[in-house]
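Incident log, structure service

09:12 report received: a user says their structure output differs between two submissions of the same chain.
09:20 pulled the input from the user's history:
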Amino acid sequence: MRQCTQVVRRYLDLIRTPGVLPLIVAGAIARLPYGMYVLALVLLLREEGFSFAEVGVVGGASGAAVGLTAPLLGRAVDRLGQTRVLVATACVTLAADAALILAALSGAGVEVLTPLAVLGGASTPPVSPSMRALWPELVGRERLDTAFAYDALQLELFFVTGPLLVVAIAGATSPAAAFLTAAFMHAGGAVAFAVTPASRGWRPAARPGRKNASPLSRPGMRVLVAALAIAGISLGALEIGIPAFAEREGSRADAGWLFALWAAGSLAGGFWYGARRWRLPAARRFLLVTGGLAAGLAPLPFAGSLTVFAALVSVAGLGLAPSTAAAYSLIGELAPEGAITESYAWQVVGYVFGGACGAWLAGILVDELGVVAALGLAPVAAAAALLVALAGRKSLSAT
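09:34 re-ran on a clean worker, output below:
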């Protein structure tokens, strides 16, 4: 209890730091849709008669587009500042999301929905990389691990409340209304973030040496992004596997609270991670929590009922926020000078590309082999991510 009180006090001190609260509020509005989009899209397309494989294609295309453009948008922020990039992308992504909803309700097929999903994904405002680039200037190096842990906890809270909000809106109105709500919050929050004093006043550091050098020129960054991409496959597999299991054992609406339990487990794991004062280097922490993530996912394919699955998916979430926070800290050590936003964008690339592949593969597995095969993909991918990180652990420790 005493340790919990200390970590809560630490987070409150962080929030009270000048300039932090407006960023947190605007970032919350922009990023809550992260926990809404997947389920809202699944419910929307399933209601319109699409198969899980088709849902996986549309969702995977959006995720792949995020991954393709995230480093470019991160580099644009490092060169142009945050405000112009955030406002421009917010306008484009809102238009693309609105067009996708209209197309789905008008009976358009996958060949129409997929390009719209690609446009929406490609123009996703880089709010999270921008926020992580601001943390060192706002809170100082001595509180950076606390800030990253808080960031990861906040994201997991969105993944708890987001699915529940989708189910509530979809139940009261329609899945299309839930998706549109997410789209407006995402774009509006990005604009609100862009006009905060901290974001408008941020200026990137000059890049020493080759100005066009990518963060991936560093071996440690290449290993980390590869490990995150493979771990992302497990997350994408669950984005399809959880709704498929809910539909098989109960109803589509059950997916909402199952996603919330998964995120609640991650929230608990993130709180534990943030409560500790770590002496282990960031590289070793990342290996430790990635192993925990793989172990937590392993029992999921063996669940035989909603009740058992609910318990197991809560445990499966415990390693998610800690692995994310450890990756943030590790990127902060590995990022080249003047490329901090782009470096954090590559973390997004890894998770999103992996998630897109995982959703696509899981959709095929559900339709061809069943739900168990899709759920089995998750622990296999997480274990593979651990092996990649272990193989490259020397480069992860090089700063």
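09:41 both user submissions now match this output. Likely a transient worker issue. Closing.
09:42 reviewer note: Residues 89 and 96 are 11 Å apart (CA to CA). The first helix runs from residue 2 to 16.
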